[in-house]
Specification:
The complex is a heterotrimer of chains A (321), B (337) and C (310).
Chain A lengths: L1 H28 L15 H11 L5 H15 L4 E2 L4 E2 H36 L4 H15 L2 H15 L18 H38 L2 H8 L4 H38 L5 H10 L3 H29 L1 H4 L2
Antiparallel strand pairs in A: 1-2
Chain B lengths: L3 E14 L2 E14 L3 E5 L6 H9 L5 E9 L2 E2 L5 H7 L4 E4 L13 H12 L5 H14 L5 H4 L9 H13 L5 E5 L7 H18 L2 E6 L2 H7 L2 E6 L2 E7 H6 L4 H9 L47 E5 L2 E4 L22
Parallel strand pairs in B: 3-8, 3-9, 6-7, 7-8
Antiparallel strand pairs in B: 1-2, 1-4, 4-5, 9-10, 10-12, 11-12
Chain C lengths: L3 E14 L4 E16 L4 E5 L6 H9 L6 E6 L2 E2 L10 H4 E4 L13 H12 L4 H14 L16 H13 L5 E5 L7 H18 L2 E6 L2 H7 L2 E6 L2 E7 H6 L4 H9 L8 H22 L9 E3 L5 E3 L5
Parallel strand pairs in C: 3-8, 3-9, 6-7, 7-8
Antiparallel strand pairs in C: 1-2, 1-4, 4-5, 9-10, 10-12, 11-12
Helix pairs in contact in C: 3-4, 3-5, 4-5, 5-6, 9-10
The chains are: A mainly alpha (321), B alpha/beta (337), C alpha/beta (310).
Chain lengths: 321, 337, 310
């Protein structure tokens, strides 16, 4: 099994490398360079040119790329934001934790919704219960996330005032206190829930069809023939075997979340990576955009990697090889 | 007779197609004795597997009528929890395809162990493992302690079927139902598995219901044979009588359509096709459509099983007149179904 | 040069492994198989799962890449790239095992049967229809069924549609891969009879691949027994069944259930005897790798895989 994981890691590395090249080239194509934003128009163009030469900005792209990637890997140097006048690493640092928590809570909600609904729907397929749940999933498929998030914000945030309508924590609280924690959680719930309610429908449908599929397998009859009760057949055989692909889907769920956070963070003005991304595009803050794209890309690749590793851990048919 | 193990009386198993129920097993009456192999022979669509599943009550959505008497219980009316106590304990089953009949995500130990656990909760895990190894030994698996921790996909087809048999015999059942146990296996493996089943019968004094379409397997294994066609039993006899003196036209046609030393050249072809569940004739001799050269008058109006010799029952009176057509048309024109 | 000559045919499949997924070994699915078939005869290729019999058949018709060896069909080397252009492929057709999955369920019978015709012959719609109806009639299906879909037919009828497709181009050689093993006994008889009939009518040659010795005995003139990619024995049907020499052949023959219940004890004893012989003399029939030796002729028609003398 370790062989499989190592091989899988070896595949992920060139993927990440390729991603970094693409991101770098994209950044190169954008107008201006590191000096443009800093330049005082009164400086002698020859001096600027000299400075360019000194900084290596006139080198061919692959040499610049090597300089850049060395900086990223060794010092975490992702450049400077011209808007915030801060190191990109620093800006992203704060945002990353916010997005991490948002994603985590969303994932928890996603599975809290998906597993019971999927199981009910799969076990009692074609009953009234199942039709209700499938109905919900169709609505979920058809509803764009940004509209649903806006509606949820308007009703639950503005009309009822149950949830804060922006930010990640109420101002004036000391980090580390219990109140601070509660406030953060309070800010998280609405964005996470609205995202989960929409993205979970995939998982519900997936789990439902897995269960219906597993129900008809021959080994289920074997289990019944052994004298297992119906509930045992469900818990020990059907559920276990159906959850396996769901576990493997976990990594891809993360990839899906990335797309979701971009909408949801913007709508709830939640200071995370997604919001930063949209802002930076609007402000043409290219060094930040590049860094965010790179990180989100890496997260997607790692998500897929995670999926494969989980699958290899839980499925003996892969594990043994 | 106290030798009787299982008694099936007027069993009727119907499946729902759209809004109506259609009987796949129609008015079957049978007994299985202790220490006996009863073979049930038929082609696909004859209802033989539906019958086996009815005895174990493994059908999901079927209407079962009649009586299946086993150890003073009528299985048809037993509560689910009582049924679960019987299944896997007093009665067990082996299935056709050992590849799909085992859970791919559980070790062999867990799968056999589950059958033990369900009927004996007192066993400690250690005892259970020992018993599993014991069972694997019994079914002839070479390295039982190693195989215990393997998964089904690591075993060959023959080994998997041995594991299935180990599951089935784990609680010393009195009745073993084997549904095409060797159809998916190679011939040399088939011979080994059949030997194994025969040994088990002798050691456990169990009654075995062997469902198969393979007349060779029947000839090798069975004590008594029931031939099924279109949901009904058309002939029952002990194995020697059935092969030496088959009476029902269907039995005779089947025996004539197998390539064997007896007849070179043309094999007998049964005209027409097995009717589907929905289109099954429910009246008259169900096989009559497949011997159109016979006169209608040879059939009974409501064919019943006649005992023509002790223990030899044949349905319908047409067997008294049956003959094979001299020159059966080379290819039967049955394009329209 | 005979009708079909297969010379030292090898089909190896790579096994990939290691960190970089490189080829580390090969499955020798077919490992040096030679045989020849005379026109108008039926040659049986027998073996258990994994013996390489199906791979051999597929390699002859070009569905598997040939690693080494030659296949001559009427003197033309099919493994020679130059002959790819040659229309010999038209003369070789295949019948598959499972009539349920080998016919495209979304196509009508006419499209299924006419497919080879469309590839090789330019026919007008009307000619094509006429031809397909004729073929269906030949396999015993009513010509009206050309517009039906495969699911409207029973297993035996489907297999006959497969045969109609195979004979559409008037082939000379048909490779039949387990043509009846998915069928019920009575339907089996129908298809086997029919295959014999059209063989006479069209002077067909069959390469008949099967695991069922009873059927092979009924159908074939000559038989080759395969085990783990190699031949263990080859001979006339009589040679194989009345005078089996290789221990593996004996095991196969002993394993066939006897249809007469009176022979039960005899059969059991025979099986035990063979098993004893198998255990005692395994080494004189198989090399260190558990593979068969090369074939040695023991009579004009009969060859057995035995080690070199000494």
């Amino acid at each position: 099994m370790w062989k499989f994981i190592v091989r899988r890691l070896l595949i992920a590395l060139p993927q990440i490398l390729l991603l970094s090249v693409l991101v770098f080239l994209m950044a190169q194509m954008m107008p201006g360079d590191a000096l443009s934003g800093l330049i005082d128009p009164n400086i002698d163009p020859a001096a600027i040119e000299a400075q360019r030469e000194r900084l290596g900005l006139n080198d061919p792209w692959h040499i610049q790329y090597v300089d850049w990637i060395t900086g990223v890997v060794t010092e975490g140097d992702l450049g400077r934001s011209f808007r915030y006048k801060m190191d990109v690493t620093e800006i992203i640092g704060q945002r990353l934790t916010n997005t991490f928590w948002l994603s985590l809570v969303t994932l928890i909600f996603t599975y809290l919704i998906a597993i019971p609904l999927g199981i009910t729907s799969g076990r009692y397929n074609d009953t009234f219960r199942d039709q209700m749940i499938t109905g919900y999933t169709y609505v979920g498929f058809a509803t764009p996330l940004f509209i649903f998030a806006l509606v949820a914000l308007w009703i639950l945030g503005f009309q009822f005032g149950w949830f804060p309508t922006g930010g990640s924590v109420s101002p004036g609280l000391t980090p580390g206190t219990f109140e601070y924690f509660l406030s953060r959680l309070h800010h998280l719930i609405l964005p996470a829930l609205s995202m989960a309610l929409i993205t979970t429908v995939n998982t519900v449908q997936y789990l439902r069809s897995e269960i219906i599929d597993t129900k008809q397998k021959d080994f289920i009859i074997t289990a019944r023939a052994k004298g297992a009760s119906e509930s045992r057949v469900y818990n020990r055989h059907i559920l276990r075997n159906s959850l396996l692909p769901i576990a493997a889907f976990f990594g891809f769920e993360i990839t899906g979340l990335i797309g979701g956070t971009i909408f949801v963070e913007t709508i709830y003005s939640y200071p995370g990576m997604g919001q930063l991304f949209v802002e930076s595009i609007n402000l043409r803050d290219y060094s930040v955009v590049t860094a965010v794209v790179l990180l989100l890309g890496i997260a997607s690749i790692l998500g897929a990697l995670l999926s494969d590793i989980i699958l290899s851990l839980v499925d003996p048919r892969i594990r043994i090889k | 007779m106290d030798n009787k193990l299982l008694e099936i009386k007027n069993l009727k198993t119907s499946f729902r197609i759209k809004d109506d129920y259609y009987a796949a097993v129609d008015d079957v009456t049978l007994t299985v004795n202790k220490n006996e192999v009863l073979a049930i022979v038929g082609e696909s669509g004859s209802g033989k597997s539906a019958l086996a599943f009815s005895i174990m009550r493994l059908h999901n959505r079927a209407k079962i009528e009649g009586e299946v008497l086993f150890k003073e219980n009528n299985i048809v009316e037993l509560s689910p929890s009582k049924m679960n106590k019987l299944r896997g304990n007093d009665m067990a089953m082996i299935f056709q395809d050992p590849l799909t009949a085992l859970n791919p995500l559980m070790t062999i130990e867990d799968q056999i162990g589950e059958a033990l656990f369900l009927h004996n909760k007192k066993m400690s895990p250690k005892e259970r493992r020992n018993k599993v190894i014991d069972l694997l030994n019994q079914v002839g698996i070479p390295r039982p302690d190693y195989t215990c921790d393997q998964f089904p996909h690591e075993l060959s087809g023959g080994m998997r079927q041995r594991v299935m048999i180990a599951i089935a015999i784990s609680n010393n059942p009195e009745l073993l139902i084997a549904d095409e146990p060797t159809t998916a296996l190679d011939v040399t493996i088939q011979a080994q598995i059949l030997d194994l089943i025969r040994d088990l019968k002798e050691n456990m004094n169990a009654g075995i219901v062997l469902i198969t379409h393979d007349l060779g397997v029947v000839a090798e294994m069975a004590d008594r044979v029931a031939v099924m066609y279109a949901g009904e039993i058309v002939e029952i006899a002990d194995v020697h009588t059935l092969f030496e003196n088959p009476r029902h036209p269907y039995t005779r046609s089947l025996l004539n359509s197998v390539p064997s030393d007896g007849h070179e050249g043309k094999l007998h072809v049964i005209q027409g096709i097995v009717p589907s569940l929905k289109h099954l004739p429910r009246q008259g001799c169900r096989f009559s459509a497949r011997m159109p050269w016979m006169d209608e008058s040879v059939h009974e109006e409501n064919p019943v099983l006649h005992e023509i010799a002790p223990g030899h029952h044949v349905r319908c009176t047409c067997h008294e007149h049956f003959y094979f057509p001299k020159e059966s048309k080379e290819v039967q024109n049955d394009g329209i179904s | 040069m005979g009708f079909l000559d297969v010379e030292d045919l090898k089909v190896h499949f790579p096994i990939r492994g290691g960190l970089l997924n490189r080829k580390i070994d090969a499955v020798r699915a077919v490992d040096g198989v030679s045989f020849s078939i005379e026109q108008g005869k039926t040659y049986g290729l027998v073996g258990e799962s994994g013996s390489g019999k199906t791979t051999t058949g597929r390699a002859v018709i070009g569905l598997n890449n040939i690693t080494a060896g030659k296949v001559f069909f009427e003197g033309n080397d099919l493994t020679d790239k130059k002959n790819k252009m040659l229309d010999v492929r038209k003369d070789i057709q295949m019948i598959f095992q499972d009539p349920y999955s080998s016919l495209n369920p979304k196509k009508r019978v006419i499209d299924i049967v006419a497919e080879p015709l469309r590839n090789y012959e330019r026919l007008t719609k009307k000619e094509e229809r006429y031809k397909v109806a004729e073929l269906l009639e030949k396999v015993g299906l009513s010509p009206e069924s050309i517009l039906k879909y495969p699911h409207e037919f029973s297993g035996g009828q489907r297999q006959r549609i497969g045969i109609a497709r195979a004979i559409a181009l008037k082939p000379k050689l048909i490779i039949a891969d387990e043509p009846v093993s998915a069928l019920d006994v009575s339907v089996q008889a129908q298809v086997l009879n029919f295959m014999k009939d059209i063989q006479k009518e069209l002077n067909l040659t069959y390469l008949f691949i099967s695991h069922d010795l009873g059927i092979v005995k009924h159908m074939c003139d000559e038989i080759g027994i395969m085990y783990k990619g190699r031949y263990v024995e080859e001979g006339k049907t009589g040679d194989i069944f009345t005078n089996p020499q290789h221990i593996y052949t004996k095991r196969l023959v002993a394993a066939i259930p006897d249809i007469d219940p009176k022979n039960r004890e005899k059969q059991k004893q025979f099986r035990e005897e063979v098993q004893r012989e198998y255990e005692e003399s395994y080494e004189s029939y198989f090399n260190e790798e558990g593979l068969a030796y090369g074939l040695k002729k023991i009579s004009d028609t009969h060859a057995v895989a035995l080690p070199e003398k000494g």
